[in-house]
Design a protein that fits this description.
The protein is an all-alpha fold. The chain is 70% helix and 0% strand. The chain contains 14 helices and no strands. 25% of the residues are buried.
């Protein structure tokens, strides 16, 4: 069928051009060429793409413009485009992001996006923990905390506690060295053990993300044991640690005298465990 009584006779110039050029432009028949020229298309490949898309409507002169918008948005099928258009979405990527987000309603998705979320699962999880934006929620996940209360302690109070402990540890180590050099070996034992205790407390709060309470009556060997369990690593010979705790207790409560030989053995033990615990604390602070 030739388009002699439809739209071609309404535009004689296009009709005449079509009759002269349709074969030269690669069109198989006049009808193809006529339809193509009606929408301003002068290449058969573009015409066939337009026709295959489902957008071609002879009675709608704007259908080709809509097809071009569809292509510009990166869409590959008409249904996705029309669904996206209903949601006022102009690109395939943006539409797929919404589809993959898990949200059923686009307004809910936009609301979550305004808070930095792209996934409904993350948005719901953050809401459950009481976080209103993605950045804070992401930091919470990185922290390894199990609750918002734990996270608040981790971000606000923990750095202060660790800094306070580090100051005590630094001064205690300095005082212990002076005590050793001045042959006050009893004071040296007491101070080195105190330094290990404070270092263990700093590690404990860093790993368990909760404040250490002295009323829990945890001994230093209990603390180090729990730290080792947390990182799945044995940190010290616990029998030897208990031995030096007993020595410290006798120094403090029974005025035990400590010889140079015993002090040197204690120094060797305390140096080893201090270095191990201190390196672990530095790794946690990175």
């Amino acid at each position: 069928m030739f388009y002699t009584e439809s739209y071609i006779l309404n535009d004689f110039e296009k009709f005449y051009k079509a009759t002269l050029e349709f074969q030269n432009l690669g069109f198989i028949n006049f009808n193809e060429c006529a339809e193509s020229f009606k929408f301003g298309i002068d290449q058969r490949e573009k015409y066939l793409e337009f026709k295959k898309s489902g957008f071609l409507h002879i009675d709608n002169p704007n259908s080709y413009q809509e097809f071009l918008i569809y292509k510009e948005g990166g869409f590959e099928n008409k249904k996705d485009y029309l669904d996206a258009k209903d949601l006022n979405i102009s690109t395939k990527d943006e539409y797929l992001e919404f589809i993959m987000s898990g949200f059923q309603k686009y307004n809910a998705y936009l609301n979550a996006q305004s808070q930095g979320f792209n996934k409904k699962t993350e948005f719901d999880d953050a809401k459950k923990f009481g976080f209103a934006n993605y950045n804070e929620y992401e930091e919470f996940l990185k922290s390894g905390c199990k609750s918002k209360e734990e996270y608040i302690f981790f971000t606000n109070q923990l750095p202060i506690l660790i800094k306070k402990n580090q100051k005590i540890i630094k001064q205690t180590e300095k005082d212990a060295e002076k005590a050793f050099n001045s042959k006050r070996f009893e004071e040296f034992i007491r101070l080195r053990f105190l330094s290990i205790e404070k270092l263990s407390e700093a590690l404990y709060v860093s790993l368990y993300k909760k404040e250490f309470k002295h009323e829990d009556d945890k001994k230093v060997d209990d603390l180090i044991n729990e730290i080792g369990i947390k990182i799945n690593k044995k940190l010290v010979d616990y029998d030897e640690l208990k031995y030096w705790r007993r020595i410290r207790n006798k120094v403090v409560h029974q005025n035990l005298k400590v010889s140079l030989d015993k002090a040197e053995k204690g120094k060797e033990f305390f140096d080893e465990i201090f270095d191990r615990l201190f390196k672990l604390l530095q790794e946690l602070e990175k």
